[in-house]
Amino acid sequence: MRKIVTLIPSATEIVAFLGKKDLIVGRSHECDYPKDLNKIIKLTSPKIKVEGTSREIHKQINTILENSLSVYKVDIKELKKLEPDLVITQAHCEVCAVSLTEVEEIVNKHLNEKTRIISLQPNTLGEVFDDIKKVAKGLNLDLITTESLIKPLEQRVKNIQIKSSKKKKRTVACIEWIEPLMAAGNWIPEMVKISGGEDIFGKSGKDSHWINFEEIKSYDPEIIIFLPCGYNIEKTKDEVENLLIKESKWNNLKAFKDKEFFVVDGNQFFNRPGPRLVESLEIFAEIIHPSLFNFNHQKSGWINFFK
């Protein structure tokens, strides 16, 4: 194995976690962790204006997908120059990264026939660990080495689960998009449960889905966590502030009155199904049971909206 191209942030993080970061020769425009990737060429770019509000971004994406177009552009010329041995992408979401179909077409048409593709499609925390093993196998790493890297992550998960199980579960709503409202699915409900919460909207292992305010009002959860896909803390906080200005009905919710609104860095943590999902789990634990957990992620990974 000589040269790797990663077309989704989680893939870059997995390769780095496995100790093979130096083999990455090309990446997506969103691959920004580990931090020292500046010299590695970006091979993708968005076709939308990502600076807009969540509603504006939603409209742009819908328009593109209605016309059967990709949300992202691939720099095929630069990709051909790199001649990678391995391209790691995803088949999980057409909005998250270049679609698997498009990657396959590009590789078949423009790259060496020996170029291999690994596609990641996790829906649960366990499947994220399975994907790490899949990448490790693609990199020809031995299973014992891979297991030795994954085992500490699994132990951290287990420790949180054991500790949180002694507390009463708290009801939680995880909002993955703000306008329109979307409840987070896939690995998020499972992680909330491990952290000692009950995710009232998300369906473990299933796609995220649209909801409306009346549903939130009906269940009136104890905690509301905003983790929009691709948004950092600052941008998410701005969106929540705008939402509350436009829709004062949110002020009547239990979570609002009890100051249990939380903003997290969805972009760096929760939306990336890689090794740092364990840190995301720690963030959930800190938010849901602050008397039990303190992993020092506050401010860097999450904030209380009211503080």
Overview of the molecule:
It is built from twelve helices and 14 strands. It has 307 residues and is an alpha/beta fold. It folds into two domains: 4-143, 3-Layer(aba) Sandwich (Rossmann fold), CATH 3.40.50.1980; 167-304, Nitrogenase molybdenum iron protein domain (Rossmann fold). Strands 8, 9, 10, 11, 12, 13 and 14 form a seven-stranded mixed beta sheet that branches. A five-stranded parallel beta sheet has the order 3-2-1-6-7, sandwiched between helices. Helix 1 (9-17) links the parallel strand 1 (4-6) and strand 2 (24-27). 41% of the residues are buried.
Biggest sheet features: 7 strands, mixed
Report the radius of gyration as a whole number of Å. Answer: 20 Å
- Helical coverage, percent range: 40-55%
CATH topology of the largest domain: the name is: Rossmann fold
The named CATH superfamily of the largest domain: Nitrogenase molybdenum iron protein domain
Q: Which structural class best describes the helix and strand composition? A: alpha/beta
